[in-house]
């Protein structure tokens, strides 16, 4: 008798599984949710007094489980911070993981940002990016980004587009603001190791000529010049100041149609020749590169340099 009941139960289970496969995914999810609610209600106790519109036992259980996981994760993070890891501060600010002084540079108030933009707009020769960076004790890249964003905001105001000032005010109230930075700058480290060399009797008495050593501050200054130049090149390209007419579509689904007669070719003369790169048209004529084409060639040309961290 028990064997017959088990066979009947397995057959009904197979029919239910076949029926669930025939339904759509949303129906399956709805059925699973309903069965989970029913099983949880049956196992966790009856007569809890919940109404139809109140939270189900499953939702309450999931919420409590998620809260417990968050507490365990927070405790584990605190233990890891106390037991392992290190912070190497290259600045003179005495920063730690809990005392991040230079984080204030990213919290300049909107009033200060607007003043920076107006100063640069009214007198760009006096208030250059470098001058504003010195005045507000931040890096030139941050000044350039602020000015570009304020210029974009001004265009939005002229076009009567929606600006979410309430959200901006809420963010400033939540994280706080400052009127001047902490003097952020690019820093680098020059690791040094002892270097020993075996010399002969003849070389021992000669004057040593050690390799020129570059101080960390000098190396940081040279790297900062490269970083500033590359940042503003990319900023001008991203804000359509350069390469305005270039096609910026990437990952094409299909190749563009070939024009009648073929493409024009970009020719770069090689060797010792005074000729500049030019465009050879399909009709045999030549012309010089325009600004967009020069920008495209510049961006496509590899610029090998030392990696800057």
Automatic annotation (TrEMBL):
Domain of life, per lineage: Eukaryota
Q: Where is the composition biased (Low complexity)?
A: 1-22, 31-44
Region annotation (Disordered) maps to: 1-58
Write down what this protein is called: Uncharacterized protein
Query: From what organism does this protein derive?
Result: Ostreococcus mediterraneus
């Amino acid at each position: 008798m028990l064997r017959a009941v088990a066979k009947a139960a397995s057959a009904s289970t197979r029919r239910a599984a076949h029926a669930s496969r025939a339904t759509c995914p949303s129906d399956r999810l709805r059925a699973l949710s309903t069965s989970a609610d029913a099983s949880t209600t049956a196992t966790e106790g009856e007569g809890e007094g919940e109404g139809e519109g109140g939270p189900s036992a499953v939702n309450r259980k999931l919420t409590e489980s998620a809260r417990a996981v968050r507490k365990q994760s927070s405790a584990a993070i605190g233990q890891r911070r106390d037991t392992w890891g290190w912070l190497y501060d290259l600045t003179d600010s005495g920063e730690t993981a809990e005392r991040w002084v230079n984080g204030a540079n990213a919290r300049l108030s909107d009033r200060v940002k607007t003043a920076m933009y107006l100063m640069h707009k009214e007198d760009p020769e006096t208030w250059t990016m470098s001058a504003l960076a010195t005045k507000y004790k931040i890096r030139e890249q941050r000044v350039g980004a602020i000015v570009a964003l304020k210029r974009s905001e001004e265009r939005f105001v002229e076009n009567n587009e929606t600006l979410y000032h309430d959200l901006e005010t809420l963010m400033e109230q939540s994280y706080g603001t400052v009127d001047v930075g902490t003097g952020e700058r690019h820093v680098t480290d020059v690791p040094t190791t002892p270097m020993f060399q075996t010399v002969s009797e003849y070389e021992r008495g000669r004057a040593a000529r050690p390799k020129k050593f570059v101080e960390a501050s000098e190396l940081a200054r040279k790297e900062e010049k490269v970083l500033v130049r590359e940042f503003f090149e990319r900023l001008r390209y991203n804000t359509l100041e350069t390469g305005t007419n270039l096609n910026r579509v990437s990952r094409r689904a299909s190749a563009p149609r070939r024009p009648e007669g073929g493409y024009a070719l970009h020719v770069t003369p090689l060797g010792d020749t005074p000729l500049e790169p030019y465009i050879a048209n399909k009709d045999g004529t030549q012309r010089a590169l325009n600004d967009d084409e020069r920008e495209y060639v510049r961006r496509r040309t590899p610029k090998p340099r030392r990696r800057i961290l």
